[in-house]
Write a structure and sequence with these properties.
Mean pLDDT: 79
Radius of gyration: 14 Å
Number of strands: 4
CATH class: Alpha Beta
Structural class: alpha/beta
Order of helices and strands: EEHEHHE
Number of domains: 1
CATH superfamily: 2-enoyl-CoA Hydratase, Chain A, domain 1
């Protein structure tokens, strides 16, 4: 796993920490995948009661890392489409009936 996003479980809490403060915690595809895996773990494991998504640095997140497309505009557009396709499912995935999801926007 990249150091750009950290994942740990502690005392019934699944914790995801965005760790790209120099890039304003812009979320890459790899970071998005870690968030989805944490949501899956929360859904599948009875020992986890809540998910906390937090960030290091001054900002929570600048959003999608559009630089990940790397180069010409067409490549960036492809990267955004690849990112947003499954990302639209994130709000739905975060609606967990018997679990809590918290965002810590203070950094």
């Amino acid at each position: 796993m990249s150091d750009d996003v950290l994942r740990e479980d502690r005392e019934g809490l699944a914790i995801v920490t965005l760790n790209r403060p120099k890039k304003l915690n812009a979320i890459s595809l790899a970071m998005r995948d870690v968030i989805f895996r944490a949501v899956d773990a929360l859904r599948d494991r009875a020992d986890l009661r809540a998910l906390l998504i937090r960030a290091r640095g001054r900002y929570f997140t600048a959003g999608v890392d559009i630089a990940e497309g790397g180069g010409p505009r067409a490549a960036q557009v492809r990267a955004i489409r690849r990112w947003w396709g499954p990302a639209h499912d994130l709000p739905t995935a975060l609606r967990l009936r018997d679990r809590d999801v918290h965002l810590s926007a203070g950094g």
